[in-house]
Amino acid sequence: MAALWMARCGVNARIIDTNITKTYRGRADGLQPRTTEILASFGIAKDILETACSVHESTFWADDGEGGIQHVVRVSEWSPDLGRYPLITTCQGRVERCMLDGMKHYNNLEVERGVKAVDLEVDESTVEDLDAFPIAVTVHHLPEEELLEASTHQTIPQPGDFNYEAEDDAYRTRHLSGKEGSNETIRAKYVIGADGARS
């Protein structure tokens, strides 16, 4: 979402990811109403909502102590007071694709795949200088032999698979940069670490 925001605001940015491709199978398939509102402000909520399922209530069950289960509670997940959109579930891969499409649309930003940050240094003497680029990030462009080890090992859906979507075709393969196997230093004003538990 940070990359989409940068693209929407016209900020010159680079987005790197060690993974060979986008996410296809979800690890986070629910969106809260406020998240959907933010995505709507970027102009991408409509595409996400086309295939999303609204969640209006949830039911929780627990072990009954005799080898079965028992109903514990039913909870409402949405009311008009919460906002325009309900809680929804949809494939994380679809949300990610809509964000990637938005980045490309707004500022022609693309994710550089197979690129790993290996070092970061901050020049403390220039952090207050608005014209300076005080951060130096060293990135490693992964060659093929390192790529599979660094990636999440997900299967990429092919035509005929249940979760294949033709709209994903542009994101199925890594585009080679010619820098594979080399290191590069990127000078920046800001760095956002958005790699989950590792950031």
TrEMBL record:
Keywords: FAD, Flavoprotein, Oxidoreductase
MF annotations from Gene Ontology: FAD binding; oxidoreductase activity, acting on paired donors, with incorporation or reduction of molecular oxygen, NAD(P)H as one donor, and incorporation of one atom of oxygen
Family annotation (InterPro entries): FAD-bd (IPR002938), FAD/NAD-bd_sf (IPR036188), RIFMO-like (IPR050641)
Record has Phosphoprotein as a keyword: no
Domain of life: Eukaryota
Domain FAD-binding: 1-128, 164-199
Name of the protein described by the UniProt record: FAD-binding domain-containing protein
Organism of origin: Penicillium egyptiacum
Upper lineage: Eukaryota, Fungi, Dikarya, Ascomycota, Pezizomycotina
